Amino acid sequence: MLGREAFGAVMDLTSIPDVSAPLPWQGDTWSRLTQQMEDEQLPHALLVSGPEFTGKSSLAMALARLLLCAKPVDGLNCGSCHPCRLSAGGSHGDFRWLEPEGKSRVIKIDQIRSVVDFSNRTAGFGVRKVVVIAPAETMTMSAANSLLKVLEEPPPDTYLILVCHRSQGLPATIRSRCQQLRLAMPPRAQSLAWLEPLSGSAEMSENLLELAAGRPLLAAQLHGQSGVERLRDASVAMTALFNGRGGVLPLAAALAEEELESALAQLLGGIEALLRNLDGPRLQTVQARAAFNILDDIRQVQRAIDGGSNPNRQMLLDAMFAKVQRVLGDGGLGDNIGANPGGAHQ
Ligand SMILES: [Zn+2]
Fold it and tell me: Tell me, which fold does domain 24-182 have in CATH?
């Protein structure tokens, strides 16, 4: 059982802490959920949606483990009861975490069928059963149809938590049977405070968050994958490119060792930062519109990858870099924004 969001190891189910707490920016949401639990109003099917890399799976894990814990402490799972020890080890019999298995990018019908059987059984501990499906939009159509049976008549002791980045990617029949919980983008200050112990400095946290377009878990992942130097190199290369210096080759070199997803995320973050710094009239220019088109292209590729496509990394990046060079390589947008379009503050 290895957890991940659409890509990358966002949540590692092989190292679950004793106590699973929500992330700092999820406090209000968490209070509402625990209040619903106290009032015995927690829905049996919950659809948690929101931007990628903001911690939806962490929230689902915290809720699942709280539901299974025998003696919650201060609104969190206790970490020491028998069910908590089992859920930390991934071997709690009343807990299922569904995600695409192995190299698959989809959740298959067989996985959902096993959940249907699971939900029809009596809870081993005689209390509650919990199923988390993440990301739920990766269910195949037949898998989603199969899940409908459980959603239509959820057994009283079974809780289904669906996690998805884009709820529109789920069939309306699924959405309408879940209580929807939409999470917003985490506030910047809280993301930075959370990142700092990891990155080691406020400056690096800001760089990382900028590159990750404000998504703290992606920032953490970029830090873990890329290392500080590589991030700086990419950021410096983007700054130079946007200022009409150096062309696209240094950027391609700086991103050469990155996973495709990470390279795309950094490119997206850099161009977003460039556009954020433009004033109104400049945003209306043909060049700025062309830059927005590149963002659309990148997001489209990201969605395709999330949906299971496996593009040729080199061909795709070469084409993307060529477009970036064509649109932004003359420095026409960069000259207005100082030296920090990619988020490098040094
Ligand atoms: Zn416990």
Answer: Rossmann fold (3.40.50)
